[in-house]
């Protein structure tokens, strides 16, 4: 059995990185070590004082070491989110 | 109670530096379809149905929900996710899904064989 990221290819994904950041983009490629190619990516910066800020990044390669979670984004749910009103602490970093 | 047939298989080739037996991989394979809670090393807890697992213990969960969605609204639009094995702290399972005795015995045999 393999948990390949095959099914997420060309879909919009939310990548949680080991430093607690969240990057949303289109998954274009991956390999065994979970290195990722994300197209049209932007970072969603969460803050407890202001709404979610989106920083445009473009085409990114993320090294597998730094990947924690890859979530498949449900477009319908995502478009109904009012990012401007979400207040949250940034995620913690991964501590081994 | 699950009838676990745990087979210990040895990898011959280069294995990226992880332990060369697949006991826990086999164990998790037998739990596919069950509901689990995965606690990550960044303190995030994700509840979901175990969809698949691989030799690195990377986990794919479907129909996920974050245990504390008020604190962690980050994953609101995510229904399925892939979790890298290296960032997992705990995998919480209901006690009746696991034959603890069998697992303990298998792990002990494992440890013994590894020593030799």
TrEMBL record, chain A:
GO biological process, alphabetically ordered: mRNA splicing, via spliceosome
InterPro entries: Lsm8, LSM_dom_sf, PTHR15588, Sm, Sm_dom_euk/arc
Highest taxon above the source species: Eukaryota
CDD domains recorded: LSm8
Family annotation (Gene3D superfamilies): 2.30.30.100
Main function: Plays a role in pre-mRNA splicing as component of the U4/U6-U5 tri-snRNP complex that is involved in spliceosome assembly, and as component of the precatalytic spliceosome (spliceosome B complex). The heptameric LSM2-8 complex binds specifically to the 3'-terminal U-tract of U6 snRNA.
Family label: Belongs to the snRNP Sm proteins family.
PANTHER family listed in its UniProt record: LSM1, U6 SNRNA-ASSOCIATED SM-LIKE PROTEIN LSM8
Name of the protein this chain belongs to: U6 snRNA-associated Sm-like protein LSm8
Organism: Esox lucius
Automatic annotation (TrEMBL), chain B:
Keywords: mRNA processing, mRNA splicing, Nucleus, Ribonucleoprotein, RNA-binding, Spliceosome
Domain Sm: 23-97
Keyword Thylakoid: no
Gene Ontology cellular-component terms listed: catalytic step 2 spliceosome; Lsm1-7-Pat1 complex; P-body; precatalytic spliceosome; U4/U6 x U5 tri-snRNP complex; U6 snRNP
Any one Gene Ontology molecular-function term assigned to this protein's record: RNA binding
Primary site of residence: nucleus
Highest rank taxon of the organism: Eukaryota
Gene3D superfamilies xrefs: 2.30.30.100
Family matches, as Pfam families: LSM (PF01423)
Function: Binds specifically to the 3'-terminal U-tract of U6 snRNA.
Family, as annotated: Belongs to the snRNP Sm proteins family.
Subunit structure comment from the entry: Component of the precatalytic spliceosome (spliceosome B complex). Component of the U4/U6-U5 tri-snRNP complex, a building block of the precatalytic spliceosome (spliceosome B complex). The U4/U6-U5 tri-snRNP complex is composed of the U4, U6 and U5 snRNAs and at least PRPF3, PRPF4, PRPF6, PRPF8, PRPF31, SNRNP200, TXNL4A, SNRNP40, SNRPB, SNRPD1, SNRPD2, SNRPD3, SNRPE, SNRPF, SNRPG, DDX23, CD2BP2, PPIH, SNU13, EFTUD2, SART1 and USP39, plus LSM2, LSM3, LSM4, LSM5, LSM6, LSM7 and LSM8.
Name listed for the protein in its UniProt record: U6 snRNA-associated Sm-like protein LSm2
Source organism (scientific name): Esox lucius
């Amino acid at each position: 059995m393999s948990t390949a990221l095959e099914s997420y290819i060309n879909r919009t994904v939310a990548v949680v990185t080991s430093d607690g950041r969240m990057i949303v983009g289109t998954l274009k490629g991956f390999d065994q070590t979970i290195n990722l190619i994300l197209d049209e990516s932007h970072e969603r910066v969460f803050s407890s004082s202001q709404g979610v800020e989106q920083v445009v990044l473009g085409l990114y390669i993320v090294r597998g070491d730094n990947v924690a979670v890859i979530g498949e984004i449900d477009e319908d749910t995502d478009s109904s989110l009012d990012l401007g009103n979400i207040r949250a602490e940034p995620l913690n970093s991964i501590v081994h | 109670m699950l009838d676990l047939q745990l087979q210990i298989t040895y990898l011959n080739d280069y294995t990226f530096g992880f332990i060369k037996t697949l006991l826990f991989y086999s164990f998790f394979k037998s739990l596919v379809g069950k509901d689990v809670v995965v606690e990550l090393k960044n303190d995030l807890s994700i509840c979901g149905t175990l969809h698949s697992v691989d030799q690195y213990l990377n986990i794919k969960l479907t129909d996920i929900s974050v245990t504390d969605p008020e604190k962690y609204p980050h994953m609101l639009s995510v229904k399925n996710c892939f979790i890298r094995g290296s960032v997992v702290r705990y995998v919480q399972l209901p006690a009746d899904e696991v034959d603890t005795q069998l697992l303990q015995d298998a792990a002990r045999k494992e440890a013994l064989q590894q020593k030799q």
